[in-house]
Each structure stands twice: as structure tokens, then as C-alpha cells.
Sequence to fold (90 residues):
Amino acid sequence: MVAIDRGAVEAALDEIRPALHSDGGDLILHDISEDGIVSIELLGACGTCPISIITLTAGIEVIVRARVPEVAGVLPHAATHEDVLGLRAE
Fold:
């Protein structure tokens, strides 16, 4: 698999942020897996919105994949016990 440029993914997400901010939300890029899956956490109003999965797949994923074709998909970040405690090894 081709290594995905994290900066290119961040740049694509920066294009999306103003729309999320206008709705009281934001996002965090958590990870890009070796198989091209981008892990995103929606924050604020976007994180608790009942249609957040649609925002993630029909909005964020479409834009990120258009800007960075090597991305295979975008999934919601699943926090682990280590993440919450700040113990995740990088």
C-alpha cells in the first residue's frame, strides 16, 4: 500500500472545518492505517448529532477521497481505554 501523506489529509480536513464550525462542531484526525483508512473523531455538536455518520461518509469521506485518492475510507474513531488515559503508544 502507498503511504498516505498525513499533511494532505489534514489539508483536506481544513477545507471541511468551516462547515463543521458553523454547526458548532469540529473534528480530530486520529490515525491513518496502513491500509488507507482514516480515523476521524467528530467533536461538539457534530459528535452528538444523530446523523453524524452521514456527515462522515457522505461529506467528509467524499471530500477527503477526492483530495487524497490513496485514502480507502474514513471511519469514526473508536476511543480505547489507552486513548482516554493518554497512554496510547505512538
